[in-house]
Amino acid sequence: MAASLDDDFELNNQDYYSLLNVRKEATLEELKASYRRLCMLYHPDKHRNPELKGQAEKLFNQVRQAYEVLTDAHSRAIYDIFGKKGLEVEGWEVVERKRTPAEIREEYERLQREREERRLHQRTNPKGIISVGVDATDLFDRYDEDFEEMPGGGFPHIEISKMHISQSIEAPLTNSDTAVLSGSLSTQNGEGQGSINVTLRRVTSARGWGEVEFEAGDILGPLFGVKVFRNITSRCFVTGQCGVQFSPRGVRRTCSLIAARQLDQHTMGYLKWRGGRSSAMTTSLVRDTDSSHFSLSLQLGVPNSYLMMSYAFKFQDEDKTRVRGSVKTGWFGTVIEYGAERKISRHSVMSATVSVGVPQGVTLKLKLERASQTYLFPVHLTDQLLPSAVFYATVGPLLVYMAVHRLIVLPYTQAQKKHASVFVDRCVLSSACLKTSLLLVFYFIHPPPPPSPPPLSPLSVRRIMEAEESKMGLIILNAWYGKFVSDVSQKKEKARVVDVTVPLQCLVKDSKLILTEASKGGLPGFYDPCVGEEKSLKILYQFRGVMHQVISADTEPLRIPKQCECIITHTESEWPSSGSF
């Protein structure tokens, strides 16, 4: 656990500029040059040792992530203000241009609040349905005599005939137990009813779960039920449900059983039996592919039996448009439905369906799905099969959608894309003090493990050394990074340093070593042995056959060789040894 937290600290505290060894004002060409060089050094394919290959792959991915962020002006601006934490917040792609850090920080806080709301939403998983039934039969089934006798009778009478509202939320109790609370209210023709339901669900294993429910408030009386789900095989499952309802007319028992099997990659077969007063046996076949959805159902039962077939075609566009149709025929008549569904925003889907049947008449069903909320508006137009009702039910919603899409939706989406394309071009550097303080506290409580050797193959290191030796170039003899003890009064304190000879040698290019003005603890192969304390880098190197020594502060830029360096004549005993820290 502590090791994983330490890894998270290193990843979150990683400085992309230090990792690529570039200055904060680095150009795109400088970033590309540094990225290509580091990829050649730390590419996983250059390692045969599994342990070294895993370390190299981890560092290679960090380098690639840093390059992708810093080469994108959008992401780089956010990173310069908030660091990696800011890149994790969703919604930056639709934020309009801001010119000051205060405005960007305000947008960041707003996006953080939205993120917390989404987390709460995912945890409770609220679901709701609102259905409003509209009776508009007077638009087509008008009786002129009745309208003439009523004041204002020249206008058709449209009313809300029924309404239904239901809502449910989930409350996780443990990793395997969940409580679900739901309720519903409905009214029709002046009469209303409501109920509340409490369900306790437990996941018994990876193959099944069970739940117990209690419902009260319905006019039929309280209900107790049990439901069980079980995977028989990887392609077959069974669901069983039974319940007892205590109504004023006696005890009513209900039960049902569903068996399903996957017939092929896209086809499922279902067999359902329902017992009780309305007993029935239903067989269904469902085939769902990327381009279509087909279902066929046959029910034999009392008092209703029917045959239903439906087909939906899926367009391969970004709006996920669907066109569907269905036919249902049984003892109580025949119904034909056709309609379309389309995504109108990121979280919203709208659909319209026309239902034509005997003896039901003509009904227009409008549906809007917004996240986990569903809004239904069934509009009953006529009790008869009138061509005019079918025509207006088909053409009317289409014309309204085209007008709304062209006048409202399309301009809004274009404005959002325009704002995203002209995002911040100037950002002022600021530090997240609270975040840094918390990370430092954690780092002192859980000190990181000693650094592992940089994931470089011996062949690559030897090749770099031989190339520099052949031209009497820059050779790093010893390099240490950390806190050094030089004062006589502090001799009892041990130096805390790390050997970085090999990582520095690999950063040598054309007999030159150039380090930018950033903390050297973020360089590949480096490690911070004393967080929060002043550190320095001490290098003993050879150039043109002559030894030199240089000491550089942690955030100080460094460029060697230097013309003003002195020749070192002392021994290596003055350098920190592995036993001194």
From TrEMBL:
It is a peripheral membrane protein. CDD domains: DnaJ. It is found in: Mitochondrion outer membrane. SUPFAM superfamilies: Chaperone J-domain. Required for mitochondrial inner membrane organization. Seems to function through its association with the MICOS complex and the mitochondrial outer membrane sorting assembly machinery (SAM) complex. SMART domains: DnaJ. Belongs to the DNAJC11 family. GO terms for cellular component: mitochondrial outer membrane. Keywords: Acetylation, Chaperone, Coiled coil, Membrane, Mitochondrion, Mitochondrion outer membrane, Phosphoprotein. GO terms for biological process: cristae formation. Residues 15-83 form the J domain. This is DnaJ homolog subfamily C member 11.
